[in-house]
Amino acid sequence: MPTNIPNFIPPENFTPILPPELSVEQKEIFNEFSKYVDTILLPEDDPLHQTERSWVTDACLKRYLRASKWYLSEAKARIKYTLEWRREYKPADIEPERVEPEVVTGKMHINGFDKHGRPIIYLRPGLENTKAGPRQVLAVVFMFESAIKLMPKDVENVVIIVDFHECSARKSPGLGIAREFMHVLGSHYPERLAMSLVVNAPWYFWGFFKLIAPFIDPVTKNKIKFVDLENPDRMKSDPQWANILDEIDRNQLESEYGGDQEFVYNFEIYWDTLLKRIGKR
């Protein structure tokens, strides 16, 4: 039955993928990293000190260390860079009104969870309604922060479905916007992307992908999989392809992709439901 209500409640039977236990050496690196982070936080008398303190959880620090392959100097540089970015960009405090024009058509929305309890973000450039600009990146950051708030216990990642249905070369996000998004994702949300499933990729996408590929770090690039809805078993002969139903249960997936969710996007209902769920309304 068609519904306008998005699914922000994770399934009861999901199986989270937990990071491996730290080795003795990794525990020592983690302790040293944690001490370093304490020295670069805002002073305790700063109004934003507690906000930063709440953000640098043990899980957060471990994500930066894993993304840096446990090279301490690299992890230090990366988290310092992100803290400086968060102070200026304030991603957790983006006012919904600033990004509202970017979500009117449903070109970016969260709906459902994969088999491991990871929120699903849908990006549909075919529904593009605005000109390329910083607000588009801001809106994706808003969605990322919202998805993080929707994560159940023991879940740290999101799944992104990029659907190019009815997307022309004119409607596609520009190279600059794509590069900026990949930079923000790789630099400030390390280990947050579980996988990106690309659906209905048009002929011109492959040339576009070659242009942005050099700006995607190898770890992120390996998480990008392509989906052939007409031939889901294509993944058996090419590891670059995936069967979307191997990753997401039908009751969590929108019907256009083989799921049972007959979700019909209605901006007013969606926006009100999301903002209430994440405490912004």
UniProtKB/TrEMBL annotation:
GO MF annotations in UniProt: phosphatidylinositol transfer activity
InterPro entries recorded: CRAL-TRIO_dom (IPR001251), CRAL-TRIO_dom_sf (IPR036865), CRAL/TRIO_N_dom (IPR011074), CRAL/TRIO_N_dom_sf (IPR036273), PI_Transfer_CRAL-TRIO (IPR052578)
Listed CDD domains: SEC14
SMART domains, alphabetized: CRAL_TRIO_N, SEC14
Pfam families per record: CRAL_TRIO (PF00650), CRAL_TRIO_N (PF03765)
Residues forming coiled coils: none
PANTHER family: GH16843P
Name the UniProt record assigns to this protein: CRAL/TRIO domain-containing protein
Organism: Gigaspora margarita
